[in-house]
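Narrative summary of target 7.
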Amino acid sequence: MAFDESDFVRQIHASGRRVVIATTGGGSRAISQLLSVPGASRSVLEAIVPYAEAALARFLGGQPDQFCSPATARAMAMAAYRRALDYSEPQALAVGLACTAGLATDRLKHGPHRVHVAAQSRAATRLVSLELEKGARSRDEEENVAAGVLLNLLAECCGLAERVPVALRGSETLQASAIDAPQDWQALLAGEIDSVRVRPPDGSGEP
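Modeled conformation, tokenized:
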């Protein structure tokens, strides 16, 4: 059966998740794909594109070490999640979704073409990274890949089984990771408590 993008997006809208999306340097096409299907107001709380370096630094509350990195994607997802907490009820359904990418431009690009997508929810931090084969696609084609990776991570957060088909080349591999938050850290992230006790990894000593 052929992939039905509209039906896929409708499932996201019907999932109950309440999402703030932040993208810079790629992935923004996913925003228009979400908003073009009726029912977007049930899932999308806000979409932000802090494209300039100064805009991203303001969104994060400080200058990142790198503008396209896994750490920056996670920081963006956390900033988006905190905004989602402000808008979402119940807060347990809030999701912060972010993408930072270095894609083909109209200038010579010396570094690799990369996509880093992250999602922050109450229960977990998720990250998907991809290094694209340089020179193998146009900017438009690379943007399609970035948007697909972003939408698929959102689908995972929504508990959906279906995924957007993403045409990867033989040298390309999605690198995915997830960190589950302990219950007390979940409450801290949600703003329900102000602090948690942290003990050494062996459980000994004072916190």
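The longest strand covers residues 94-102.
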